[in-house]
Amino acid sequence: MDTLAHGLWAAIGIAAMQPRFAVTRTQAVAAVSLAVAPDLLQWLPLLGWAAVGGGHLSDLTTFGLALPGQEPGLPEIVALLTHHLHCIMHSAVVAGVVTALAWRFRRAMLLPLLGWWSHIVIDVPTHSADYYAVPVLYPFTQRGFDGWAWNTPAALALNYTAIAAALGWLAWRRRRRL
Known about the structure:
By secondary structure, the chain is mostly helical.
């Protein structure tokens, strides 16, 4: 799924929780931030390459919008770092360890961590094997589920229609309570 949609779904989830759970503004911002972080963090090597290694900012756009097999050529270290950051940030194993640590030492982070978990759960069925399959069991394996590619026109239309419907439902629910 695209990064914007991850942020929107996290915000919708927070808004849906609001009547039953007291969600602070800080928690909401943190959850939405963690929902988009897995996609943004894997771009750090690309940004570094653009800043100091001869890459260009246009490479970021090309990389972000590339169809399977049409990704731009990247230096080996940039490609390797980008790949492993993708794997780390989309791993249920890594997210599980972080969640367990939060459960033990910082329970206030549990709600914001739902943003990260929502990213992983949504990406598993919306990434194809050709286009960043989600390696949920990384570091044990880099294999991922072969889902429906989010960047196909039908998947995008369905996703944003569902987002519009969810926003409409939230607005209806809010008006009903007033």
